[in-house]
């Protein structure tokens, strides 16, 4: 199965980057193409929270599956989206680069689709890579 993946190094402390990235409701602040991102029903930013995202690609609804502060990682699943995917789960993780004090950030997903290669390219090139580039610029 093809899996979307992107990573980058950000010139900032891993804890600082994680403090920003762990906010499940701030996607419109840093992901290109997103116009709105709201947590539904006034929910908290804890596992089970559902965000509604609007942008050039349409409307997405995603649920936060796990939020692990010690490991600096979050996992979410897509509930609804315009793309032909099933069982989509993605993880964002931040780790310290021990010799430089920078942050290593990676974003990856698994899913099922009729054309997994095409869908993986859409997520890698259209979401993950530009999103990480935007985060790097935000902290750079």
Overview of this protein structure:
The chain is of the alpha+beta class and 140 residues long. The protein has one domain (5-139): 2-Layer Sandwich (Alpha-D-Glucose-1,6-Bisphosphate, Chain A, domain 4), CATH 3.30.530. 26% of the residues lie in helices and 41% in strands. A 7-stranded antiparallel sheet has the order 1-7-6-5-4-3-2. The longest helix is centred in the C-terminal third of the chain and has 24 residues, at 116-139. InterPro entries: Polyketide_cyclase/dehydratase, START-like_dom_sf. This is SRPBCC family protein.
State the low-pLDDT regions, or none.
Answer: none
Tell me the CATH topology: Alpha-D-Glucose-1,6-Bisphosphate, Chain A, domain 4
CATH architecture: 2-Layer Sandwich
The ordered H/E elements are: EHHEEEEEEH
Considering the chains and any ligands shown, give keywords for the structure.
7 strands, alpha+beta, Alpha-D-Glucose-1,6-Bisphosphate, Chain A, domain 4, seven-stranded antiparallel beta sheet, single chain
Secondary structure elements and pairings:
Blueprint: E1 5-10, H1 14-21, H2 27-30, E2 34-39, E3 50-55, E4 58-68, E5 73-80, E6 86-96, E7 103-112, H3 116-139
Antiparallel strand pairs: 1-7, 2-3, 3-4, 4-5, 5-6, 6-7
Summed up:
Helices cover 26% and strands 41% of the residues. With 140 residues, the protein is an alpha+beta fold. The chain has a single domain, classed as Alpha-D-Glucose-1,6-Bisphosphate, Chain A, domain 4 (2-Layer Sandwich), CATH 3.30.530.20.
């Amino acid at each position: 199965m093809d899996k979307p993946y992107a990573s980058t190094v950000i010139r900032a402390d891993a804890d600082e980057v994680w403090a920003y990235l762990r906010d499940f409701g701030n996607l419109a602040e840093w992901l290109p193409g997103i116009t709105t991102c709201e947590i539904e029903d006034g929910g908290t930013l804890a596992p089970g929270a559902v965000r509604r995202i609007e942008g050039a690609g349409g409307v997405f609804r995603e649920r936060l599956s796990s939020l692990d502060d010690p490991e600096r990682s979050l996992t979410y699943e897509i509930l609804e989206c315009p793309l032909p995917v099933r069982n989509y789960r993605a993880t964002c993780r931040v780790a310290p680069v021990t010799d430089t004090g920078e942050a290593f950030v990676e974003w990856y997903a698994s899913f099922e689709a009729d054309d997994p290669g095409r869908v993986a390219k859409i997520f890698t090139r259209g979401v993950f890579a530009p999103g990480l580039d935007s985060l790097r610029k935000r902290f750079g």
